[in-house]
Amino acid sequence: MSTRRPSASFPDTIDDALALLATGGYVADRALATVLFLSLRMGRPLFLEGEAGVGKTEIAKVLASALGRRLIRLQCYEGLDVSSAVYEWNYAAQMIEIRMREAAGDVDRGKLEKNIFSDRFLIRRPLLQALEADEAGAPVLLIDELDRTDEAFEAFLLEVLSDFQVTIPELGTIKAAEPPIVVITTNRTREIHDALKRRCLYHWVDYPDAERELRILAAKVPDAGPQLSAEIVAFVQKLRAQPELFKAPGVAETLDWATALIEMDKLALDPATVSDTIGVLLKYQDDIAAIEAGPGKKMLDEVKAELVAS
């Protein structure tokens, strides 16, 4: 397996890794900082698994910004193939080149083939872009929502991550001078094969506890006052604990809700406001109906009482 030499810009300690994420406004726990530190120092891909909206993708974005590296994002989807993820030839430009050569009387097939299958006509997709040298250092390659792809692409990716190289039949093998910093995310809609996980350092990104979520809210939505912020976090924490929900709100929804309430000039929560804006937090009608049927008002009353008591 290819390894990466530690860069001078990489954190020297776990505390430095925490501080590195904090510079980008990411409030991490020590477990995440530890696995990130080890991933950077050991040159191993970082495999992040967790529910949608807990901040997995944001980790890669903040890491690229904090390290001053280029972020290359491969957004995965069903049917993703090599031509979309790695490279393809610019067939339209190649055909034009062939017609122009023929019109000029150039019929040397060997020379023509060598010309049209050159770097000039190569379209680089994210995985190939990530292997290119960069003055700022190896880029951060974000392979987002890998669980959306099929097993065939996963197997191909396994080969790329083993040696950080790609073989193009017409050009040969292209190998990274310095392996990229790889962050892989998955929402666990399906299991990823163990062979790929073994090549990575693994971390489960969970929902934050109330204290950390309050710090995240303060960092991302500073205009929310102390009372509103405390009520938002307390309500969302209780909402996540409801067993009947199909999809609990993530941190992204917490931030959206806070922003929406600020736009409405709200200083505190009230039943009408919660009812009117619950669609910012919950994305399924069955979930909304279940909360509005009774638990919503009860949770809000509990939030108010607990905050007064504290």
What does this structure look like?
This protein has helices at 14-23, 30-42, 56-67, 82-85, 91-103, 109-116, 126-129, 151-163, 194-197, 210-220, 226-240, 251-263, 271-281, 285-292, 295-309; strands spanning 46-49, 71-75, 87-89, 122-124, 140-144, 165-168, 172-175, 181-186, 201-204. The protein is α/β, with parallel strands linked by helices and 310 residues long. A 5-stranded parallel beta sheet has the order 2-5-8-1-9. Strand 6 and strand 7 (172-175) form a beta hairpin. The longest helix is centred in the C-terminal third of the chain and has 15 residues, at 226-240. It is elongated and about 85 Å long. The model has no long low-confidence stretch (mean pLDDT 91).
Strand order of the largest sheet: 2-5-8-1-9
Which second-level CATH architecture of the largest domain applies?
A: 3-Layer(aba) Sandwich
**In the CATH hierarchy, what is the class of the largest domain?**
Alpha Beta
Tell me about the largest β-sheet: 5 strands, parallel
Instruction: Please give the share of residues in helix.
Output: 40-55%
Assembly type: single chain
SS content category: alpha/beta
Q: Count of helices?
A: 15
Radius of gyration: 24 Å
